[in-house]
Design goal:
globular; Rossmann fold; four-stranded mixed β-sheet; alpha/beta; seven-stranded mixed β-sheet
Length: 276
């Protein structure tokens, strides 16, 4: 975490940090390309701005099936799709009647997904949305608390967000949860990750035993770095439950993560909900 904080302070523009990463990993990416080791559905290391590796890991796909009854003919929405890390396994799961929509605020990731994934799997559509985020898209022209998903009401069988609300402030999260409730079909499910703040997680953070040091409390949320709050944000569990209720989403289960509990099945907390 400290290295990440230092990098952001030295190079506050995300595009600058991404350019530096691409240069740093160019020798390895070039060797992979020349040696014929490049998987066409895995981006070069220089584009891994959402965590390393795992593009062929089925953990989340298996969890979508297990907890949310995902089917091959479902219409799926991936909010904050990044560079297609979760989309890649879905290319081998969705059938001819199924489809995938993903959007993200980082244009470089969307361009790669369109060229590498959509060109091979036309049912997988990726789009860039120019939404403001101090960490990832400081030039964005639309505020996240005002952004409307570019889809019609009740149009998706399943919506998921992985490591998105961990980078968004409460009012923006409230708007997005409302939009998720709007675009989900009645009875459809969502799978969303958070850093949830409750009595236990707050104590773990205060004791210095959490993997994400959300030490800076701001009422209903806490951040790891006040200068770059969107780099890691924890949200009050009570607040999130209220937002879900407002959006017509019924929480079915919460799987608390290993970021503050050693027994967590995932790193972040996972909230499973159904559209009422």
């Amino acid at each position: 975490m400290q290295l990440t904080v230092l990098a952001k302070r030295a190079f506050p523009r995300f595009k600058t940090r991404l350019a530096i990463r691409r240069v740093a990993y160019f020798p390895l990416d070039a060797i992979d390309f020349l040696a014929g080791r490049r998987d066409p559905l895995i981006p070069p290391r220089g584009l891994w701005f959402v965590g390393g590796g795992g593009f062929r890991d089925n953990q989340f796909l298996n969890s979508f099936i297990k907890y949310c009854d995902l089917k091959p003919d479902h219409r799926i929405l991936d909010v904050g799709c990044g560079i297609g890390k979760q989309a890649v396994p879905l290319t081998q799961f969705l059938g001819p009647a199924g489809s995938y929509e993903g959007f993200d605020i980082v244009e470089a990731g969307i361009e790669w997904c369109q060229g590498a994934i959509t060109s091979r799997y036309p049912a997988f559509i990726f789009r860039h949305v120019n939404v403001f985020n101090k960490h990832y898209n400081p030039e964005g022209i639309v505020l996240p608390e005002q952004f409307k998903f570019p889809y019609s009401n009740a149009s998706f069988d399943f919506v998921y967000l992985i490591s998105v609300f961990t980078h968004m402030l409460p009012e923006a999260v409230r708007n997005y949860i409302g939009e998720i409730g709007r675009v989900l079909k009645p009875g459809a499910k969502s799978f969303i990750s958070f850093f949830l703040l409750n009595d236990l997680s707050r104590k773990v953070v205060a004791d210095g035993n959490s993997k994400i040091p959300l030490n800076h409390e701001r009422g209903d949320y806490a951040v790891a770095d006040p200068a770059f709050p969107e780099s890691a944000i924890g949200l009050s569990e009570d607040l999130i439950r209220r937002y879900y209720d407002e959006a017509g989403l019924e929480i079915k289960d919460i799987h608390y993560g290993s970021w503050c509990r050693p027994e967590g099945p995932f790193f972040q907390d996972i909230v499973i909900a159904v559209r009422k």
